[in-house]
Amino acid sequence: MGCDIHFYTEVLRTIDDKKTWCCCDLWKLNPYYKVFKDEPEYEIEELYGDRDYNLFSILAGVRNYSDIVPISKPRGLPDGVSTAVKAASDKWDGDGHSHSWFTLYELMSENSRRLCSSPLDDLVNLCVQRMKKELHILDNKEVAGEARRFRIVFWFDN
Which of 68, 59, 67, 151 is nearest to 98 (CA)? Predict the structure, then answer.
């Protein structure tokens, strides 16, 4: 049986003078909504959904067949997780495992420490592009300064 990642992105915004993590994923209408009983009206267009066990190993030590040193052990869902991501996690109940998260700043720092190109490179690039679009960043010099305001939240199933 394979293992898949469930991957979400969040951005830190100020709403009513309160800093709030908000889901910044893209959603599309589900063509099977109302056709089948348990289908949601919208489904996520995940930023990342490939089955790459090397990346899973780097992120959380999941399916670590190559003795890759993970960034950290799974950290659970983050404080202040957005409503949409919490609901998605709850839906998986006990079938989801190894919940964790990282800010883009953490991923960029870790990526610079790893000397060779890795699946982490690709993930960081995808996250940078999403953050730039979400926060309307035009100048690449702003990326590092805003990277703590963008995070990924993920878990696995098998």
Answer: 59
The structural domains of the chain, with segments of one domain joined by +, span 4-157
Closest to 125 (Cα-Cα) out of 47, 71, 56: 47
HSE at residue 108, side-chain half, CA atoms within 13 A, is 18
- DSSP code for 156: E
Q: Which of 51, 158, 156 is nearest to 97 (CA)?
A: 156
Pairwise CA distance, residues 18 & 40, whole Å? 30
Average pLDDT, consecutive stretches of 10 residues, N- to C-terminus, the chain (158 residues)? 94 96 96 92 91 96 94 97 95 94 97 84 96 94 95 96
